[in-house]
Amino acid sequence: LFSCFNGQAAELKRVYGKLSFGYGDWNKGFVNVDRGEVWKAVADFGAVFDRGEFASFYEMNVLNHPVEGRNHVTQFLGHYRVVEGSNFTAMMKLYMSMENKFGDELNMMYGVGYLGLTSPSGFIKPYFAVHNLSNDYTSKKYGQATGFNGYVLGWVAAYNFDMFNEKFVISNWNEVEMDRNDAYAEQQGGTTGLNGAVTFTWKFMPRWTASVSYRYFNNKLGYDGYGDRMNYLIGFEF
């Protein structure tokens, strides 16, 4: 995937992965979204190269419901340093949600990122992208939501620290969707949307983690206005 334009292979520096199990509760945040509990399993995988990096996950949701009511989500987020030595990147994000009840949705984002805001204790990796969409929604007034869907400003950030001789991480991912097309704005409740999460993770053993995540969104996930959800997960890193 990450190869230099002159034909030389990118140098692999690190590979990581994680398996997590737990549940989310739509009714335990500041807003009662009234969607109940969601038992889930998540597989994360990523790699870092000298010319870029990628992170991906596959998530199975609503495992406590019959098969026809379950939700599957997969994501890929990649950065590639087009100019060797530069921290500006060509970025791409693919985010797909497969849902029998509410329909499928594929978000395709292509833009510019930056990998220069890093330190031994943490990082913030911002990006700005064009947003293309493929989903099942058709508006009686505006037609299909599929097509150009505006722009996205986002970032991924994390901070590592020790406390009481234990290792902890606070992380955040955040996206602001802007200038949505009319059909998608109708479906989601507005021309702009917010989507993200803040997670507190305790690495209580060398490979085991326990995390609490505050999931927040506004005019997103089929919810009009601001909503949130709490997630609780146990993970194994490899």
Automatic annotation (TrEMBL):
Task: Cite a GO CC annotation.
Answer: cell outer membrane
Residues passing through the membrane, by range:
none
Q: Which SUPFAM superfamilies match?
A: Tsx-like channel (SSF111364)
* InterPro entries to which the protein is assigned, alphabetical: Channel_Tsx-like, Channel_Tsx-like_sf
Q: Which domain of life does the protein's organism represent? A: Bacteria
Family, as annotated: Belongs to the nucleoside-specific channel-forming outer membrane porin (Tsx) (TC 1.B.10) family.
- This protein's name: Nucleoside-specific channel-forming protein Tsx
What species is this protein from?
Answer: Salmonella enterica
